UniProtKB/TrEMBL annotation:
The lineage of its organism: Bacteria, Bacillati, Actinomycetota, Actinomycetes, Micromonosporales. Pathway: Purine metabolism; ppGpp biosynthesis; ppGpp from GTP: step 1/2. Its EC number is 2.7.6.5. Residues 775-849 form the ACT domain. Residues 169-266 form the HD domain. GO terms for molecular function: GTP diphosphokinase activity. Residues 1-23 are annotated as: Disordered. Transmembrane segments: none annotated. It comes from Plantactinospora soyae. Belongs to the relA/spoT family. InterPro entries: ACT-like_dom_sf (IPR045865), ACT_dom (IPR002912), Beta-grasp_dom_sf (IPR012675), HD/PDEase_dom (IPR003607), HD_domain (IPR006674), NT_sf (IPR043519), RelA/Spo_fam (IPR004811), RelA/SpoT_AH_RIS (IPR045600). This is GTP pyrophosphokinase.
Length: 851
């Protein structure tokens, strides 16, 4: 039968893959072309009969059964959930199988026969020529034979597997590797990309892969495989994102491969059902595109956003696309006029530069229309020009030329060279008035900065030549990306995966402000951050002990909003018991601060539960007449903890305190270990050693309160109303079995007293160990060092300051509120009198929530 070339069109977005499969009627199949970042939307399929085995891993298809009719075999293990490749890129000119010159008949058979060559010789097959040519453009000494070996291995294991489009499955890893080659990634990453689906979709094992390709490739493939195992349900997805962060922190190339994998699947999303397409597009828009942005990979980010936008909002996408087509001629004319004028100005100043227009991306235009509420014409008519020069000095020289010849728009200049963004982005931004009074956005950067701006973290994975030896590894720039380290901290600290995912989503979507420490160090924070966010960004303990802040030399409330360029100074308490308040969760913006504050209160609640659990077990043992000294030992309790699958004795106490395990069940297990009640019987005199003084949160002090009719109970003074003698108080039994003491006029009193069965009578009984939480308010004329002077007086009065907030009114009145611990409430009057003597203070008094 006469051989034929079937030229079929595909879809899937701008840029993609040209896929060809030679076919007869039997045998394995491989693609005859590759995938790139950009190209046309044509795909090539060679079909016919009598061609024989064309290459390992290629399925030959007879004319009576065209490739388009093949589907993913559900038993093959191929990833049917991902979209099939639709052939969205032209074959690079380096390939002898380019569409324009594709031979037919006997010449096709002769050319295809060459695909057997790699199995007998170290030469590279033509199917890999485009990939290797692209890769060697940035890595001249790359090992082509290693790539060929990886491709051969992937083709063997994926033999018989197909994409939803009917294309051989090997086309997908080849396309992913080509995307990464265009980004300039190293050979190890490309090898991992070729093999990235073999572990999940075939019987190829990690141990064998380590033997075949080494531990580095295996680590990358294993990381990508773990990211692909997304289960249904928000919690499971959140846990998967957490795993992504762990894998990314070990080696960021894991995420780079994942992004390339998703990009190719988004290009070929058309073969999936509508619901699946929308799910993948939403996931891409919410998580993966912002992650690409955080890694500085803007070329990937822009295409992911546009492809996701097209699938989620097709009508809006088409409308914006139509508007772009209508406005394109006028915009290009204006752009040409501007770039020519800029080039002339720079040449006159003897600055060597390349001037181009900046493309507008559909999703970016849509976002600006929604967020800024602006008309399409206002956004699209804003011309963007990019100026590329050789050195940083040329950047600033070019800026001077631009501002000398064009009228700059006030407030629109940004220097990201002196102060790079979180993802290593560097550039000078300015807006000037162009022809016809239209604004023109200018970006000025070096060629090296441009590579980083386009490819981000991928731009820095370059071979290092060292005495003839080629070494590859993570660049020093990776260490500069503190965001990666922050992510790892969050995932360790966030107990709930969903909480971590929420924090990640917020961080990905938020803009940043840049503020300074008094020493001039730059601290990036989310927009609308507060001094508390700043304190936690400096150090966890600085955040926990923060009691006040000064911004640009002026005292401000802790909930104040920070702006770009602010200089922040934090005041901290020296008290060991100082800590955050629940109120802070209402105004902090950064995920780090929110996580640290919650972690603090979780730890505090756990400590309370541990103490309550100890009390419950001791009381239960006393009721049984059991000897505490002999039976309540660490070994005995550890045995019970293991039996209950708890980590340690503290976890056992906490479980009892939280009512997850009953104290009686612990006592019964202790008795069983001693042969029952008779074996455990002993004089109760032993139990005296095990008693402990009541404890309140934050220390080991006596609360100075007794409960009527009960001699041994855990008691805590409520922080909501901070009772001190001689306040009228009542007790409320908590869920953990302790008693919380409140003022009678507490804001929560009405709700608590409604639960009459939990209200108990309490009275004050001070001891030498008693301390009390007190809150005072100080009103003064605002002045320099006011807060420092007041805190010094409080320290002289020997009180432990726990928190402080300062608010300044329009009429320059500073209203400060302090919380501190003191041993003798009778001393409060003397303390207030001392504070009133501070210069500028005109009033100081105690405050409570009920007042």
């Amino acid at each position: 039968m006469e051989q034929a070339v079937d030229r079929s069109s595909g879809s899937g977005g701008a840029g993609g893959a040209a896929v060809g499969s030679a076919s007869t009627g039997a045998g394995p199949a491989v693609p005859v072309a590759s995938a790139g970042l950009a190209g046309s939307t044509a795909a090539t399929t060679v079909v016919g009969a009598g061609l024989g085995v064309v290459a390992p891993g290629v399925v030959a298809v007879p004319l009576s059964d065209p490739v388009g009719r093949l589907v993913v075999d559900p038993e093959s293990g191929a990833d049917g959930s991902l979209a099939a490749m639709a052939g969205t890129g032209a074959v690079p000119p380096t390939s002898s199988f380019a569409l324009a010159n594709a031979p037919t008949g006997r010449r096709v058979r002769a050319r295809l026969a060459r695909f057997n060559a790699p199995w007998q010789t170290p030469q590279v097959s033509e199917v890999l020529e485009p990939l290797i040519a692209t890769h060697r453009a940035s890595h001249p000494k790359a090992d082509a034979r290693l790539l060929q070996r990886a491709f051969d291995m992937a083709a063997r294991w994926h033999s018989g597997q197909y994409r939803k489009s009917g294309d051989p499955y090997i086309t997908h890893p080849l396309a992913v590797a080509t995307i990464l080659a265009n980004l300039g990634m190293d050979t190890t990453t490309l090898v991992a990309a070729l093999l990235h689906d073999t572990i999940e979709d075939t019987d190829y094992g990690l141990d064998q892969m380590k033997v075949d390709f080494g531990p580095e490739v295996t680590l990358l493939v294993d990381g990508v495989t773990k990211l692909d195992k997304v289960k249904l349900g928000d919690a499971a997805k959140a846990e998967t994102i957490r795993k992504m962060v762990v894998a990314m922190a070990k080696d960021p190339r894991v995420l780079v491969i994942k992004l390339a994998d998703r990009l190719h699947n988004m290009r070929t999303l058309t073969f999936l059902p509508l619901a699946k397409r929308e799910q993948k597009a939403k996931e891409t828009l919410e998580i993966l595109a912002p992650l690409a942005h955080r890694l500085g990979m803007n070329t990937i980010k822009w295409e992911l956003e546009d492809l996701a936008f097209a699938n989620l909002f097709p009508k809006r996408y088409e409308e914006i696309n139509r508007l772009i087509g209508e406005h394109q001629p006028q915009r290009e004319a204006l752009l040409r006029q501007v770039t020519q004028k800029v080039q002339v100005d720079l040449k006159a100043a003897k600055i060597k530069a390349e001037t181009t227009g900046r493309p507008k991306h559909l999703y970016s235009i849509y976002q600006k229309m929604i967020v800024r509420g602006r008309d399409f014409n206002d956004i699209y008519d804003l011309v963007g020009v990019r100026i590329l020069v050789d050195t940083v000095r040329d950047c600033y020289a070019a800026l001077g030329v631009i501002h000398a010849n064009w009228q700059p728009v006030p407030g629109r200049f940004k220097d990201y060279i002196a102060m790079p963004k979180f993802n290593m982005y560097q550039s000078l931004h300015t807006t000037v008035i162009g022809p016809s009074g239209k604004p023109v956005e200018m970006q000025i950067r070096t060629y090296a900065m441009h590579r980083t701006a386009e490819f981000g973290i991928a731009a820095h994975w370059k071979y290092k030549e060292k005495k003839g030896e080629t070494v590859v590894g993570p660049p020093a720039h990776i260490d500069e990306m503190t965001w990666l380290r922050q992510l790892l901290d969050w995932q360790r600290e966030a107990a709930d995966p969903s909480e971590f995912l929420d924090a990640l989503r917020f961080d990905l979507s938020s803009q940043e402000v840049y503020v300074f420490t008094p020493k001039g160090d730059v601290i990036p924070l989310p927009t609308a951050s507060t001094p508390v966010d700043f304190a936690y960004a400096v150090h966890t303990e600085v955040g926990h002990k923060c009691i006040g802040a000064r911004v640009n030399g002026k005292l401000v409330p802790l909930e104040s909003t920070l702006s770009n360029g602010d200089v922040i100074e934090i005041f901290t308490s020296k008290s060991d018991t100082a800590g955050p308040t629940q109120d802070w969760l209402g105004f902090v913006k950064s995920p780090r601060a929110r996580t640290k504050i919650r972690q603090y209160f979780n730890k505090e609640r756990r400590e309370e539960a541990i103490e309550a659990g100890k009390d419950s077990i001791v009381k239960a043992m006393r009721k049984q007449g059991m000897p505490l000294q002999r039976m309540l030992t660490s070994d005995n309790l550890m045995t019970i903890a293991r039996d209950l699958h708890l980590a340690d004795v503290a976890s056992l106490y906490a479980a009892v305190g939280d009512s997850q395990v009953s104290a009686q069940s612990v006592v019964q297990r202790l008795m069983a270990g001693y042969g029952g009640e008779e074996g455990a019987a002993e004089d109760l005199a032993e139990t005296a050693v095990a008693t402990r003084p009541p404890r309140r949160s934050g220390g080991t002090s006596d609360p100075g309160v007794v409960v009527r009719g009960v001699s041994d109970v855990w008691i805590k003074l409520a922080r909501c109303c901070t009772p001190v003698p001689p306040d009228s108080v009542f007790g409320f039994v908590t869920r953990s079995g302790g008693v919380s003491v409140h003022r009678d006029d507490c804001a929560n009193a009405e709700d608590l007293k409604a639960q009459t069965e939990r209200v108990v009578e309490v009275s004050w009984r001070l001891t030498s160990a008693s301390t009390f939480l007190v809150a005072i308010q100080v009103e003064a004329l605002d002045r320099h060092k006011l807060l420092a002077d007041v805190t010094r007086v409080l320290s002289d009065e020997r009180v432990n300051i726990l928190s402080a907030t300062v608010t300044t009114t329009r009429d320059r009145v500073a209203v400060s509120r302090f919380s501190f611990e003191m041993a003798d409430p009778k001393h409060l009057g003397h303390l207030l009198a001392a504070v009133r003597k501070v210069d500028g203070v005109f009033d100081a008094y105690r405050v409570t929530s009920g007042a």
